[in-house]
Every structure is written in C-alpha cells, then in structure tokens.
Design a protein that fits this description.
The protein has about 70 residues and is mainly alpha-helical. The protein contains one helix and no strands. It has a domain of about 25 residues. The protein is rod-shaped and about 125 Å long. The N and C termini lie far apart (about 130 Å). The model has no long low-confidence stretch (mean pLDDT about 80).
Length: about 70
C-alpha cells in the first residue's frame, strides 16, 4: 500500500461572521418615538392639570367676597 498517493486539498478558512451586523435587536432600527407609557403619563398629567385649573377657577367663583362677609 505504499504506492497509494494521498491528495491534499487546500480548503480556505471560513470568513468570520460580523455578529453586530446580524444582531436581530439591531434590525429594529428606525425613527425614535416616545414610549407608549410616556405618552400615557403625559396625557394623565395634562388631565390632572386641567382638573386643577377647572377646580381652582370654580372655587374662586364660589368663594365669598371678602368685602361682604356672611352674617
């Protein structure tokens, strides 16, 4: 079996992958938007402010006049 010739193949090393380019979290890119929770919080704040202003203006109208104290 000494006459058997071995054939050597030159296989190039595989190219290393760019893991950053294929990261599935990076595919979610796009325009930045405010979070939904932030939008909900802002609308709640706005509603509370409107309620405070409404209540304050209502209390000011119903408050007794200091020039005419109640008897």
């Amino acid at each position: 079996m000494k006459n058997k010739k071995s054939i050597k193949l030159a296989v190039p090393a595989p190219k290393p992958r760019n893991r950053v380019a294929q990261n599935p979290l990076l595919r979610k890119g796009g325009a930045h938007q405010r979070a939904r929770s932030g939008e909900r919080f802002a609308s709640k704040q706005q509603a509370r402010k409107a309620a405070r202003e409404w209540k304050g203006s209502r209390d000011a109208r119903l408050a007794p006049c200091p020039a005419h104290p109640a008897a």
